[in-house]
Amino acid sequence: MSTFTRSAPLAAIGPDTFEHEQVVLCQDPASNLKVIIAIHSTALGPALGGTRFRAYPSDEEAVKDALDLSRGMSYKNAMAGLAFGGGKAVIVGDPVRGKSEELLLAFGRCVAALGGRFITGPDLGTDIPDMEVAARVCRWTVALSREGGDAGDTSGFTAQGLIHAMRAAARYRWGSTSLQGRVVGVAGLGKVGRRLVRLLVQEGAKVIVADVRAEPVRRVVKEFPQAIAVEDPEALIRFDGMDVYAPCAVGGVLDTAVASALTAEVICGAANNQLAHPDVERRFASRGMLYLPDYVVNAGGAIRAAGETLGYSLRESADKVEQIFDTTLQVLEHAESAGILPGEAADRTARRRITAAAEDQARGLADHT
To answer: Where is the Glutamate/phenylalanine/leucine/valine/L-tryptophan dehydrogenase C-terminal domain (predicted)?
Structure first.
């Protein structure tokens, strides 16, 4: 039986914790499960967000990641116009050696105990089969197998959303939505990165790729001979002549050093929480570079997961993902007119939508008392 507590480890609690509605630590010693579930907001609807399985240096860093990611999901869902709030689950451990059927079932029971406040699917370190195991004991899971009639792998929707965002940035920056001939660097060739390469090749872009692992690079270059591989992600950052840089691996990679070395005019990628700290975007802007807020441009997967929950067809979800073009363009135009950074413009819009929904929710409760 899993054990619940309504707080995170005490050493990890900081000011950011208290903007969240709920932070749960769930442990199951029998399966060695330790998971933090952070629910940032349910003002717009149940909290929707993936489950990350990762070995963290400390519990504090795991809690911080859950808090940051769940906040990002609230903003992502709000900007995508979805009737869902934001949450995230972080399983602490080695996803290669520590994953077991018993652990995934225990995790499913943890999510089920929240009674639908949190709906989850795959993320870094988890996949469709993992969610299928959790779904045996929890009905609040999404992105299951297509054979089961559900959405399946949502990474293709994320990649397509990035293409729409890049087209919007191209129109804003260069006056045309075409990516033909544009040089795009893709860092990280996992589920989303590989699909993004395919779409970019179809668009006629010149694609440069890199990953910390050699095997994904070999697979991508074999499948897409047009793609050019560089030595590693550091070399990609320094690659001269890039129009667009797409970070598609882990978060926090855009730091001060990258802001000084990167030459791309536009940054648009799938990774969550890309900025190591907010001032990095300002450094990009000072060099005339355009950073597109990650939670705006990488919302395609969340849109499809939400669509699965609401019973949307694949076509209906794809149409919704296409709206990322308009949302991205609106953020860029709002930032220009207000004299602020795109990240600030997106944050303001997301917070305004969440706050308005929370106020409506409070008024509704008051009317029934």
So the answer is: 149-362
Token pair listed for 68: 């940051």
* Binding residue ranges: 188-193
Q: Ramachandran region of residue 32, left (φ > 0), alpha (ψ -120 to 50) or beta?
A: left
Report the CATH fold assignment for 3-61+84-148: Rossmann fold (3.40.50)
Nearest to 290 by CA among 235, 247, 334, 341: 341
- Say how far apart CA 259 and CA 280 lie, in whole Å: 6
Q: Angle 170-271-50 (CA atoms, 0-180°, nearest 5)?
A: 125
Q: Which residues are annotated as a binding site for NAD(+)?
A: 188-193
Ranges of each domain in the chain: 3-61+84-148, 155-343
Question: Can you name the CATH fold of 155-343?
Answer: Rossmann fold (3.40.50)
| Residues with catalytic function | 88
Report pLDDT digits (tens) over 244-301: 999 999 889 999 999 999 999 999 999 999 999 989 999 999 999 999 999 999 999 9
The two domains 3-61+84-148 and 155-343 share their CATH topology (first three levels equal)? yes
